[in-house]
């Protein structure tokens, strides 16, 4: 009976060992599953963080680009306003100068006419004539500083952008379609015509 009991005890101990081994194996499997789940969870979290960081970086870049675009638009608008203000100021300045010039031209015409019609042989008038000439020269020098120039050349081709033909005259001393005589001087302001020169234009003699 003791042998049977011993045998039974041995079998029971062996079964317990096997049972413990199975339990340990099950525990290891469960632990492995949990480890795999943990690794998967960590990978998923890492991926989520990467995606979130990428999304935040994208939003940041978009925000920076919007701010940059807004800054560039604002700067361009300021530049346009400044340019328009300068153009408006220039137009006002040119308009005021042109108006002043047009008011001044008849005065210059009268001074030139006075010199041309004065009796140069009258000794009593010489000092007055010289005074008028000096006044005229001073005035022309002054207006020239503001960009006003005379159009008074002769023997130059007729230019409708500068001249107003008052008459056509036959001439064998001038080339055809050239300015023979200036009846009234023209003027330009900074290269732009403000009054055409009134001229006589030559034409070829009839055969």
From TrEMBL:
Keywords: Chaperone, Coiled coil, Cytoplasm, Stress response. InterPro entries: GrpE, GrpE_CC, GrpE_head. Its main location: cytoplasm. It comes from the Bacteria. Residues 20-33 have a biased composition (Basic and acidic residues). One of its GO terms (cellular component) is cytosol. Residues 39-66 form a coiled coil. Residues 1-37 are annotated as: Disordered. It is found in: Cytoplasm. SUPFAM superfamilies: Coiled-coil domain of nucleotide exchange factor GrpE, Head domain of nucleotide exchange factor GrpE. The keyword Transmembrane helix does not apply. Homodimer. Belongs to the GrpE family. PANTHER family: GRPE PROTEIN (PTHR21237), GRPE PROTEIN HOMOLOG, MITOCHONDRIAL (PTHR21237:SF23). Participates actively in the response to hyperosmotic and heat shock by preventing the aggregation of stress-denatured proteins, in association with DnaK and GrpE. It is the nucleotide exchange factor for DnaK and may function as a thermosensor. Unfolded proteins bind initially to DnaJ; upon interaction with the DnaJ-bound protein, DnaK hydrolyzes its bound ATP, resulting in the formation of a stable complex. GrpE releases ADP from DnaK; ATP binding to DnaK triggers the release of the substrate protein, thus completing the reaction cycle. This is Protein GrpE. It comes from Candidatus Profftia tarda. The lineage of its organism: Bacteria, Pseudomonadati, Pseudomonadota, Gammaproteobacteria, Enterobacterales. The gene is grpE.
